[in-house]
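Good day; I would like, with your permission, to put a structural problem before you. What I wish to show you is a protein chain and, alongside it, a tokenised description of its three-dimensional fold. Here, with my thanks, is the record as I have it:
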Amino acid sequence: MNKKDLRVIKTKNTLYNTLIELMREKQFEEIKVSDICNHALINRSTFYSHYNDKYELLADYISDLKKSLLSELEKNKNTLNTKEYYLEMIKLFLNHIEEKRESYLSTVINNHNSIMMDIVYDVLVHDISSSLKKEEDEKIPRSIIAKFYIGAVVSVGIEWLKNGKQYTKEEMLEYFDLLIPDELNHKK
């Protein structure tokens, strides 16, 4: 990687971090490019050499967050059964929320960014749909099962984040272990 690439990465990371900090203080719609530049200590020309506007910056940031979540979920390939798969996926999702706490707080909680929620939801549904095996005698289609559990996982994960992690991650995983039945295929 050459110096130019490192400068670009550093500038983009600075812009990402600045945007997240500003979104903690006020709504995204209230933030101006000049606010981002002043807070990041960069010139407007530098900002515009990377992004056309603040919406493109946000889209790029959310795209990177999506890639990060996808990468985290890739670790969940060695589970023995469906329940284990869900529990490991939930653990990885909670880890991601914990690791990217400020990002989730700024985009999902403080700014009620439905695009971010849609992306998280879609990433999790895609991961589940591609991981579950199709059974010939399924009573409930796996896409319905996936969406049912993901709705619960995302909702509880965001609530966990919103309430300052009232419960530990380990407690949350224990609760999910109790809530998820051992047999998820619901055969006829």
